[in-house]
Design a protein that fits this description.
By secondary structure, the chain is mostly helical. Helices cover 56% and strands 2% of the residues. The longest helix is centred in the first third of the chain and has 63 residues, at 23-85. The radius of gyration is 33 Å and the shape is elongated. The relative contact order is 0.05.
């Protein structure tokens, strides 16, 4: 899509004709209008695809969560059965056995742990909400500024689409 270059080209043409709407300028306006519609249509489809795939991702996360719970349940049931029977569970294709995992540290009460075994981390974050309030109150904040940005908004002219 040549939306930007077409817009610049049209503005240049209008400047060269000193604002006169020549047949060439009018043709470029019509062409630009069609490009705007094509870009808007394309953007709307891209946004719908993003929404669709986000929903698919959420659905897949739900499926993965269920499968992980099922896996945990089967492992827990097998462990209980092995412990109850006192031996391995064997089938024609698979066997369930217990294995020892590497040792790990379990903290029963963090308050009882000596400071020698604790790492101290200091986390400093900038509170942008507080800074914005200071600006609204007329105060200056060194190292910060209040900025107004723009974003593109797509509007669909439904009456024209229905025609």
């Amino acid at each position: 899509m040549k939306l930007l270059s077409s817009t610049l080209n049209l503005l240049n043409e209008v400047e060269l004709t000193e604002g006169e709407i020549t047949p060439e300028v009018e043709s470029k306006l019509i062409s630009l209008s069609k490009q705007v519609d094509q870009a808007g249509y394309f953007l709307k489809n891209v946004d719908k695809k993003i929404e669709y795939y986000q929903q698919e991702i959420d659905a897949m996360k739900t499926i993965i969560d269920r499968l992980e719970k099922t896996s945990d349940w089967i492992k827990s049931s097998a462990k209980q059965a092995i412990e109850l029977s006192g031996g391995d569970l064997k089938g024609d294709l698979y066997a369930f056995t217990l294995k020892k995992n590497p040792t790990r540290v379990h903290i029963r009460d963090e308050a009882l742990i000596d400071d020698f075994f604790k790492d101290k981390k200091e986390l400093v974050t900038v509170n942008k909400t507080r800074i914005k309030e200071a600006f609204k109150d007329g105060l200056e904040v060194d190292g910060a500024e209040l900025v107004q940005e723009t974003s593109v908004k797509l509007t669909i002219f439904k009456k024209q689409i229905e025609e």
